[in-house]
Predict the 3D structure of the following.
Amino acid sequence: MTFATCDICDANEDKLAAGTLAVLPPVFRSFGKRAAFAGQARTLKVFEDNVLVRAALETPGEGHVLVVDGGGSLRCALVGGNLGVLAEKNGWAGIVVNGCIRDSEEINACDIGVRALATHPQRSIRKGVGEKDLQVSIAGVAVRPGDWIYADADGVLVSAAKLG
């Protein structure tokens, strides 16, 4: 799939105005080998606990994008190098984390796309607390399971329907 988020925005101003297409605020850093990625969202809501993140990435990704609402925490990482390898091995297109990652050099070696707020060397707790397959809020933008995520060098889009 070849696309440019700028072109998607230009061609879909009506959807932007209607709220069926949204742009995430430009607060995310890019990691992984895929500078651009797209796929349907699978969602998680966790806070400083990555057990559900691992569980999701252990399943077949089938080209989906895992969207993790980590509450914007900058106190620990929710995704590390081992999870990057899992995501690549299991066919995930990418991961969007409203929180931090670690092992950035390992993640940058993986054939996936990752967007996160920052890096943090400390790992998360592991209690298994959180929810999956629900509407989440990523930097103030609603993301529902099944929404389409389009990410490239210019930004990250969330669309209620497949575009292009």
In short: The domain at 5-159 is CATH 3.50.30.40 (Glucose Oxidase; domain 1). The longest strand covers residues 37-45. The longest helix spans residues 81-89. The CA atoms of residues 115 and 141 lie 15 Å apart.
